[in-house]
């Protein structure tokens, strides 16, 4: 292609020179010469200068994006600890580009302050940002919404000056469900507290977490209480949808709802299932699906095996080649930016969650060999601590995250990240950079392991 352009340019130059000779031999009026000059300026010089300016202004940025991931060769299964230590902080400066077309919800927690900075730097990677600020609790015979002291209006203002991500703080429903769900006045009070807080603080809506709490209370085992619980979620969504957004009177406030994955291949009464999804679909803008924490210290292993993720999606949405695309888009696949360091020797087990900072410290101290587990689609490594106790560490890598992003794309669903303060900087490149060279390989892997449709 470049050779053809050079050839045509040479022919054009030759024609131009020949034309100049003939023009010099013919005496033309001044008006004709002026017309020729105007033609040359507007149709040759100005476009040429524009191309040069564009290349000078944008070429480095494009090259930097290209080399940040694929050309550095670090999205792979055979990654080494040295490569992670060298590359993890090299996120692209072109932080305003976004190529992932589905909704992306990112959580930010007060106890990992790095998340506040990541939200500002990579604001345009996300469609929704959810700071974990609020709890709705019982207080005597009433209710109270706690957490405004966590809210940072300056941070929100800066976020909005940098991008268009909607701000939806998370509210955890801690109030006693047996009281709140049975009493109409308490249900109305809870909804009023939440909607009023959104108005006063100028939020774009909320993310509500209540299903796991209700399951722990045993509420979801009772068919009548279960119906009341779903009706409350529906009413809250309708109340938020009837309230105008503080930034755009033409749009309503948004409502995301957190749901846990089923723990078996057969849905139980306390599981959130496809009928619940259908019941709430018009009242809820997104379902944040917690597809992580598959393992624990008593049963150590991968955080979110791809087969388990796929089973969860099939239980909720049916077959991946025969789903309601508008409904699927509202499901946000949970992706963990944290890992686990499990104790695997001895009788008691132990260990727990680790952040990116903890992970890097372990890599520096132990210089481990990373192993790619094909079945789970995750990297892990082993080490022995100062007491000679054996540990297994599972923490996300570029390859494991990309695998889940591609799986979500094949299903036509969104993403929810828990949580961005716990990850490594270069993770965010995956949300604005289309790794086309990997997609066919990943699709084949998913078809083989999970039997997903292409």
UniProtKB/TrEMBL annotation:
Gene field: LOC104712633
Keyword ATP-binding attributed: no
Bilayer-spanning residue ranges: 35-54
InterPro entries reported for this sequence: Chitinase_II/V-like_cat, Chitinase_insertion_sf, GH, Glyco_hydro18_cat
Pfam families per the UniProt record, alphabetical: Glyco_hydro_18
Stored CDD domains: GH18_SI-CLP
Superkingdom in the source lineage: Eukaryota
Homology family: Belongs to the glycosyl hydrolase 18 family.
This protein's name: Chitinase domain-containing protein 1
Domain called GH18: residue spans: 102-438
Keyword flag Chloroplast: no
Entry keyword set: Membrane, Transmembrane, Transmembrane helix
Chain residue ranges for the region called Disordered: 1-24
Cross-referenced PANTHER family: CHITINASE DOMAIN-CONTAINING PROTEIN 1, CHITINASE DOMAIN-CONTAINING PROTEIN 1 FAMILY MEMBER
């Amino acid at each position: 292609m470049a050779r053809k352009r050079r050839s045509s340019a040479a022919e054009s130059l030759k024609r131009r020179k020949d034309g100049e000779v003939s023009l010099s031999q013919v005496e033309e009026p001044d008006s004709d010469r002026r017309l020729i000059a105007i033609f040359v300026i507007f149709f040759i010089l100005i476009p040429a200068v524009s191309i040069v300016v564009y290349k000078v202004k944008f070429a480095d940025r494009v090259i930097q994006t290209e080399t940040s991931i694929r050309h550095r060769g670090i999205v792979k299964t055979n990654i080494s600890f040295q490569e992670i230590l060298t590359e993890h902080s090299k996120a692209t400066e072109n932080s305003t580009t976004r190529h992932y077309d589905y909704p992306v919800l990112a959580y930010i927690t007060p106890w990992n302050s790095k998340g506040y900075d990541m939200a500002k730097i990579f604001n345009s990677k996300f469609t929704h940002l959810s700071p974990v600020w609020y709890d709705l609790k019982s207080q005597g015979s009433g209710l109270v919404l706690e957490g405004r002291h966590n809210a940072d209006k300056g941070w929100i203002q800066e976020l909005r000056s940098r991008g268009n991500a909607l701000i939806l703080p998370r509210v955890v429903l801690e109030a006693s469900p047996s009281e709140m769900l049975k009493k109409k006045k308490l249900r109305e009070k809870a909804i009023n507290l939440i909607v009023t807080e959104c108005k006063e603080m100028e939020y774009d809506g909320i993310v509500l977490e209540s299903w796991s709490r209700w399951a722990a209370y045993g509420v979801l085992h009772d068919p009548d209480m279960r119906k009341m619980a779903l009706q409350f979620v529906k009413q809250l969504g309708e109340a938020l949808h009837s309230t105008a957004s503080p930034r755009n009177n033409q749009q309503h406030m948004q409502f995301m709802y957190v749901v846990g994955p089923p723990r078996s291949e057969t849905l139980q009464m306390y599981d959130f299932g496809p009928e619940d999804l259908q019941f709430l679909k018009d009242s809820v803008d997104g379902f944040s699906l917690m597809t992580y924490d598959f393992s624990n210290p008593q049963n150590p292993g991968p955080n979110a095996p791809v087969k388990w993720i796929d089973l969860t999606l099939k239980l909720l949405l049916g077959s991946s080649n025969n789903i309601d695309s508008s409904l699927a888009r509202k499901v946000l696949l949970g992706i963990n930016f944290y890992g686990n360091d499990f104790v695997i020797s001895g009788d008691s087990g132990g260990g727990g969650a680790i952040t990116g900072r903890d992970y890097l410290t372990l890599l520096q101290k132990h210089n481990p060999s990373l192993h790619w587990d094909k079945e789970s689609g995750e990297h892990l490594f082993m080490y022995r601590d100062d007491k000679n106790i054996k540990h297994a560490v599972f923490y996300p890598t570029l390859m494991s995250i990309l695998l889940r992003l591609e799986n979500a794309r094949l299903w036509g669903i969104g993403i929810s990240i828990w949580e961005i303060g716990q990850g490594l900087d270069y993770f965010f490149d995956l949300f604005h950079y289309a790794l086309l060279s990997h997609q066919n390989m990943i699709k084949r892997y998913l078809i083989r392991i999970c039997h997903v449709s292409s």
